[in-house]
Amino acid sequence: MQKLSKIAVLTSGGDAPGMNPCIRAVVRTAIYNGLQVTGVRQGYQGLIDNNMYEMNNRSVSNILNLGGTILKTARCLPFRTDEGMEIAYNNLRARGIDGLVVIGGDGTFTGALRFSKKYPDIAVMGVPGTIDNDLYGSTYTLGFDTATNTVIEAIDKIRDTADAHDRLFFIEVMGRDSGAIALRAGISCGAEAILLPEKETAIEELIVSLKAGQYNKKSSSIVIVAEGDKHGGVYDIAKAVEKEVKNYDIKVTILGHLQRGGSPSSFDRILGSRLGYAAVNALIAGKTQQMVGLQANNIVSTDLEEALNQHEFKLEDDLMQMMEILSI
Ligand code: F6P
């Protein structure tokens, strides 16, 4: 095993609160261990464009509280091609880089694994960073906690006005194919219904439960719709319900990208620090093609191949069961 001398770090895909604390931990852990660190701007695009800079301990001062990512991020199509990967490889080798930490979601990891199989002399370690919480191998991903709290704050505000006007609100939240944000935010805000990609709810069933709520003297109702829900979007659902549920003024809110921003929560700052620290130590220990993650409050490594193949992040059974019972 050749001794590692210089690593690069990048963030890729959708930004997530907690990425900055993770970058900080990567840089400082690496320097503490005598490694040089290069920051790559705009994810894989920066590898191709040779858009990189040398980092030191001061490059990551005062960033723990910042949302987004100081390295910037991108969704990079050219990195999916052999030509793009070759340019990236040559740029890394020319800088003497022999280890790479990638912070992102499954698209990021897919790119990292392909790259690492093609060019195994550059060790690769993944850190799960996405608000969607949809990666196998880590109970929580960076940014999920902050995003969920942001959603909760927004829905609490909507509840105030919903209640004041006796209205029914349909609120769409992010998560791509995952209902993790929707489920937790829904339970935390007492949503009357939560529509998830993981569990199909027939519109007729939703209508029955909203009518039951009216009958039980509920003044306002909130239905959370995960963006990956299979019914074709929050407006279509609201329209279908409007035809059947009378005496309710119906409104639709799509929370959108505000869910991705904001200062990371305590949980995400600690998680980012732990994962960044662990990723560098794993590279130093000679590991590659893995991701570090949190399981039962321990940091563990999972092969990227396994993480990507499993690609099933199960929502908690008890939360799924209680979501209907607690909002009656
Ligand atoms: O993966 C994070 C995420 O915010 C998803 O929840 C959402 O589907 C997607 O990214 C939005 O991507 P973009 O910012 O490129 O529109």
From TrEMBL:
Residue numbers binding ATP: G14, R75, C76, G105, D106, G107, T108
Top-level class of the enzyme under EC nomenclature: transferase
Required cofactor(s): Mg(2+)
Alphabetized GO MF terms: 6-phosphofructokinase activity; AMP binding; ATP binding; fructose-6-phosphate binding; identical protein binding; metal ion binding; monosaccharide binding
UniProt binding sites for substrate: T130, I131, D132, R167, M174, G175, R176, E227, K251, H257, L258, Q259, R260
One GO biological process term: fructose 6-phosphate metabolic process
InterPro entries reported in the protein's UniProt record: ATP_PFK, ATP_PFK_prok-type, PFKA_ATP_prok, Phosphofructokinase_CS, Phosphofructokinase_dom, PKF_sf
Residue span, Phosphofructokinase domain: 6-283
Cellular component terms per the entry's GO annotation: 6-phosphofructokinase complex
Chief location category: cytoplasm
Keywords: Allosteric enzyme, ATP-binding, Cytoplasm, Glycolysis, Kinase, Magnesium, Metal-binding, Nucleotide-binding, Transferase
Reaction it catalyzes: beta-D-fructose 6-phosphate + ATP = beta-D-fructose 1,6-bisphosphate + ADP + H(+)
Location(s) in or outside the cell: Cytoplasm
Magnesium as UniProt keyword: yes
Record-annotated active site: D132
Residues where ADP binds: R24, A25, V26, V27, R28, R159, G190, A191, E192, K218, S219, S220
Cited SUPFAM superfamilies: Phosphofructokinase (SSF53784)
Sites where the protein binds Mg(2+): D106
Pathway annotation: Carbohydrate degradation; glycolysis; D-glyceraldehyde 3-phosphate and glycerone phosphate from D-glucose: step 3/4
Regulation: Allosterically activated by ADP and other diphosphonucleosides, and allosterically inhibited by phosphoenolpyruvate.
Coiled-coil segments on the chain, per record: none
The keyword Coiled coil is annotated on this UniProt entry: no
Quaternary structure (record): Homotetramer.
NCBIfam families reported in the protein's UniProt record: PFKA_ATP, PRK03202.1
Function: Catalyzes the phosphorylation of D-fructose 6-phosphate to fructose 1,6-bisphosphate by ATP, the first committing step of glycolysis.
Protein name, as recorded: ATP-dependent 6-phosphofructokinase
Protein source organism: Mucilaginibacter hurinus
Biological classification of the source: Bacteria, Pseudomonadati, Bacteroidota, Sphingobacteriia, Sphingobacteriales
